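QUALITY CONTROL LOG
STEP: pairwise intake check
CHECKER ROLE: data steward
CRITERIA: each record must contain a sequence immediately followed by its structure tokens, with no blank fields

ENTRY 1 OF 2
RESULT FIELD BELOW
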Amino acid sequence: MRYKNDRFNIVVSDGGLWFDNTASLGGRGAIDLLLHVKFGVNPRAASSQQFREAVAWLSNFQPATGFVSKVDLSHQVFRPSKESFATQSARYAIRDDARWPLARHYLLKIRHLPSDLVDHLHQSGDIYATFPLERPKQTGVCFIHRNLEGNARGATIRRIDSFTGSFSIGEKQGAWFAVGDVGLATRAVLVEAPIDAISYAALKRPDDTAILAMSGSHATRPILDAAHARRWELAIGFDNDRPGNAGWKHCRQNYALLYPDDAQPSRSLPAGKDWNDDLRTAPRHSQGRRL
């Protein structure tokens, strides 16, 4: 089943899994879907209060036909959150430098990221240790999304404790986690996640390349416009799986429609599922790339 309007492009499978192609976000079941479409909340970042409100809404929901009409969906249910990035950060991404050794250990020892890249990004304020307001015992790593002017507009948060997973807050359409100098780059590589961006840089980045994490397998219009305006040589390094390949095809088609006279994007494919898989299986001496 699919529902699509100007805000959402949601596909629901028979097993209860759903994915919103517009937001590059998915989940399982009615509660996760309701948190996303009605409350405008990432299901993995929902507070206890928001979860209770979603359950209460579902328990009182009794449509006459057994389905929500398109009118109901368009005018009553879909109300995306308008919280600012600063407000979301104060709830989901509280910086705690005392936890940085734990976060750094995760990045270096579990993810095999090189210390020089990690330390440089930490010193520049692009990554830091964090915890959510309502779950203070839960530690994560915050990867800052910046726009083309270098301003922080969003973030991806990777949990590193038993509650593994990642989610994004704030802007991810026109702001991205980046490795490399976006202003000086002549080439850009788009990957799905911040850890993949650092992994790609460690493996093979030339000096004139910026690696941008999309927080999903979708190349947004702003990044395609930026590639055209800045004459970037654009490569798509999404994961080596079904969503990654679909994202590559959509990007290629969209760019050809927007800018048919430009050199078209190429596909940069990891040998494993993603670039971090490649990094963790590579000889350690190949991981010493610097920014």
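ENTRY 2 OF 2
RESULT FIELD BELOW
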Amino acid sequence: MMTLLIESLDQEGRGIARRDGKTIFIEGALPGERVTCTPYRKKPAYEVATLDKVIRPAAQRVAPRCRYFGLCGGCSLQHLDARAQVAVKQRVLEDSLWHIGRVRPEQILPAIYGPAWGYRHRARLAVRHVPKKGGALVGFHEKRSSYVADMDSCEVLPERFSTLLRPLRDLVNALSIRSRLPQIEIAAGEEADVLVLRVLEPLAAADMERLQEFAGRHGVRLYLQPGGPDTARPMSDEHAADLHYTLPEFNLKLCFGPTDFTQVNHAVNRVLVRRALALLDPQPGERVADMFCGIGNFTLAIARRGAVAVGVEGSAELVRRAAANAGSNGLSATASFVEMDIYRLDGGRLAGLGPFDRMLLDPPRDGAVELVKALPDDGPRRLVYVSCNPGTLARDAAVLTRASGYRLSAAGVVNMFPHTSHVESIAVFDK
């Protein structure tokens, strides 16, 4: 056991301290605190420790709302005030931009945040049948473990899903394939809720009856997924769901499938789209690209502003969904979609899409390095980059500012995942 003063937080939400030339990472410790801790992993340059006692707590320390905090690996920052979490994430973003990309934004954008609880409209719950614990467990994985947390509620899920955790355990226990159902995915729309059951064996007739009764009692639609995400199908015709969310400011309704990628936090997504469009500032008649467009979350808002929007996406299914959304929103004339592997993009393939006045990028965690390397000298005069990984954003920012002639005009965080260390952000690059 050792006593340390915590200096800051790392990207996983762990406290950072120094001792004898080593960096010590302490889970559950906050900046400014004096704590005692016990190392459980020792390396030549660093150690990782568990928190034993807080001798002097930080002013921002709060009591975690969830009784499973510390056991469940879904959240890592519930012991830190929600507003302070945003400040920590802003520092992570700025540190990443400087230490990885050697670039600083000219302006820090106000943070985007929304409800701190009940915000997760998408979630992937692990399922495991454990006879020693009384049967099925349904929830997130335990911290630093492949085990499923023994939990009956979740504070970051909407209450209607949180209260389903115990009934879901009972349901799985009653199924003949209880040991062959490893996952249940939640997909919430504005008018329908879907549960996608990953089934590794066919269901018996009695199983189907139990599922039908469960769905009726709890007001959910059930999909069965025997293979990859594209194999998810309604259990029967009556379970087919109109899953959608709206962007009222742009008069848009976006439909999605239960396994499609969509933002988990609907409230923050609305603010994010508004901010992104204000920063991108598309003008009527301009040609604007939306790279990694998904179901058209940003593309259709761009088109609604009067620009000619071109969404580019690697998934054929998402391209079809986006085109259908354009049609149902009356935007087929100004919003089109192209299926293309953006990770294999080069200058020639990018040129084949035609010139763009502006561009929005919303890549996965791997970032968009091939795309930014392929941008021509006369490329879009403004880029808005929505990132879910500050490290790859910083790497791509280095390419844009040093090799492509852009400057980093502004950047700020988006608290899409409160109580986690996940850092989303938005950045603006100008020529």
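INTAKE CHECK: passed for both entries
DESCRIPTIVE NOTE, ENTRY 2: The longest strand covers residues 46-56.
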